[in-house]
Amino acid sequence: MTDQNLPSAPEPLGILEAALYVADLDAAERFYGDVLGLERIVRVADRHVFYRVGAGVLLIFNPMETCKPSGNPDLPVPAHGTLGPGHFCFAVDRAALDTWRARLVAAGVEIEADFQWPNGARSIYFRDPAKNSIEMAEPRLWEK
Q1: pLDDT value at position 54?
Q2: CATH code assigned at 99
């Protein structure tokens, strides 16, 4: 089916949530909660931990648990998950990138890359304990 055959629909308002997958939720909680200082919303045993990020939510799932059906008829979330490193990018003001870099280095986090894109926006890249590629970049990276 081509898009010309599809009924029109309004554009999505934005990204409400994004997910990363980790085998060790305790290590993820230390990293995202303590090192990055994100506000934890909820943790459910060894299944997931969720964090508030601005108006959105970062979902951290254990893929060995989320591949199982939910078993809750009131929350029929389909099984999902992936194995291997993923990627997530935080929007950060340019003025704060040096502060973030210093905080990460002080916490023993290796900065893999720190550069300016062709449009002048700056990004820094590092890894979480599960080896997911995490980026902090100026929001203007994706300006139209």
Answers
A1: 94
A2: 3.10.180.10
